[in-house]
From TrEMBL:
<dbReference type="Pfam" id="PF01381">
    <property type="entry name" value="HTH_3"/>
</dbReference>
<dbReference type="Pfam" id="PF00717">
    <property type="entry name" value="Peptidase_S24"/>
</dbReference>
<keyword id="KW-0238">DNA-binding</keyword>
<dbReference type="InterPro" id="IPR010982">
    <property type="entry name" value="Lambda_DNA-bd_dom_sf"/>
</dbReference>
<dbReference type="InterPro" id="IPR036286">
    <property type="entry name" value="LexA/Signal_pep-like_sf"/>
</dbReference>
<dbReference type="InterPro" id="IPR039418">
    <property type="entry name" value="LexA-like"/>
</dbReference>
<feature type="domain" description="HTH cro/C1-type">
    <location>
        <begin position="2"/>
        <end position="56"/>
    </location>
</feature>
<dbReference type="InterPro" id="IPR001387">
    <property type="entry name" value="Cro/C1-type_HTH"/>
</dbReference>
<keyword id="KW-0805">Transcription regulation</keyword>
<protein>
    <submittedName>
        <fullName>Helix-turn-helix domain-containing protein</fullName>
    </submittedName>
</protein>
<keyword id="KW-0804">Transcription</keyword>
<dbReference type="InterPro" id="IPR015927">
    <property type="entry name" value="Peptidase_S24_S26A/B/C"/>
</dbReference>
<dbReference type="GO" id="GO:0003677">
    <property type="term" value="F:DNA binding"/>
</dbReference>
Length: 242
C-alpha cells in the first residue's frame, strides 16, 4: 500500500525515508510489511503523501461466523476477535470530497461512510434514519479485510460505553452492513426501543432472542419471541476497529 502511494507521488524510497526521518532500510521493511509502523510514523507518511491523517487505527479482524460454537457469553471474546498487527492494515479518515490520489486509493482501499452518531455499548441513543447522520467523512480500509466487496449499504460507526469490553472499547469503531435481515448469531448494531446499540445477539432454540454484553459487569437479557417488535436489526457487524 505505501509503495503504491509513494510511486503515485513520484517519490523514491529514499526520498520518503528522508522525509519522515528513517533509514532507507527501515522504509524498505515498512513497504515489505516486515516491520509494524507506529501510528506517529504512519501519520508522517500520510502527511508527506498529501493525505489527511486525523485518525489512524489498527484493525481487528472478526470471524465470518462469530458465535456458532459459543455456549456462553464468557466465550465471546475468544471466538470473535483475531488480532491483526501488520502495519498494512491501517485505515484512516478523509473528507468525502477530498482529493487524495483516488487512483491509488481505489486499488487498495474501500471507502466507507462514517456516521456522526455513536452506537452505545451501554445506554442507547435516540435515532432517526441513518442517512441523517452521515458525516461527510469516509473511512479508507484495506480491501484485504473483506472476502467480497462491501455493498452500498456498508457504514462505520463509533462505539460509546463499556458493556462490550474487552471486545469493544469506548471509541472503538464497527463496520456494519445496513440490513434488517437476521444473518445468524453475532455482533449487531440494533435499534432497541428507538435506542441505537451494539450488542451480541443469539437466537435461542425457543425463538427468544438473547442480547449479550461481553462485559460481565453488565447484565445480558432475553427478549421473548412475542415482544421482539421492540428490537429492530440495523445491521450485522463485519469488522471492528479498536
Amino acid at each position: 500500500m505505501i509503495r503504491e502511494l509513494r510511486e503515485d507521488m513520484g517519490l523514491s524510497q529514499i526520498e520518503l525515508a528522508e522525509a519522515i526521518g528513517v533509514s532507507e532500510r527501515t522504509m524498505r521493511r515498512y513497504e515489505q510489511e516486515e516491520d509494524s509502523i507506529q501510528i506517529g510514523t504512519l501519520k508522517k507518511i500520510f502527511d508527506v503523501l498529501g493525505m489527511s491523517s486525523n485518525n489512524s487505527f489498527f484493525v481487528q479482524q472478526m470471524s465470518s461466523n462469530p458465535i456458532n460454537d459459543v455456549q456462553h457469553s464468557k466465550n465471546v471474546t475468544k471466538s470473535l476477535l483475531s488480532p491483526v498487527t501488520k502495519s498494512s492494515n491501517a485505515c484512516y479518515l478523509v473528507e468525502e470530497n477530498e482529493n487524495v490520489h483516488k487512483s491509488s486509493l481505489s486499488q487498495s482501499f474501500y471507502t466507507i461512510p462514517v456516521l456522526s452518531i455513536k452506537a452505545s455499548a451501554g445506554r442507547g441513543n435516540d435515532i432517526m434514519e441513518l442517512e441523517s447522520y452521515e458525516s461527510g467523512e469516509v473511512m479508507c480500509i484495506d480491501k484485504g479485510f473483506f472476502k467480497s466487496p462491501p455493498n452500498a449499504k456498508v457504514r462505520i460507526i463509533q462505539v460509546d460505553g463499556y458493556s462490550m469490553i474487552p471486545m469493544l472499547l469506548p471509541d472503538s469503531w464497527v463496520i456494519f452492513e445496513e440490513s434488517d435481515v437476521w444473518r445468524g448469531d453475532g455482533l449487531y448494531v440494533l435499534n432497541y426501543d428507538n435506542e441505537l446499540m451494539v450488542k451480541l445477539l443469539q437466537k435461542l432454540p425457543n425463538g427468544n432472542l438473547e442480547i449479550i454484553s461481553a462485559n460481565k459487569d453488565y447484565k445480558s437479557f432475553v427478549i421473548e419471541r412475542d415482544t421482539q417488535s421492540v428490537v429492530r436489526i440495523v445491521g450485522k457487524v463485519l469488522r471492528s476497529i479498536l
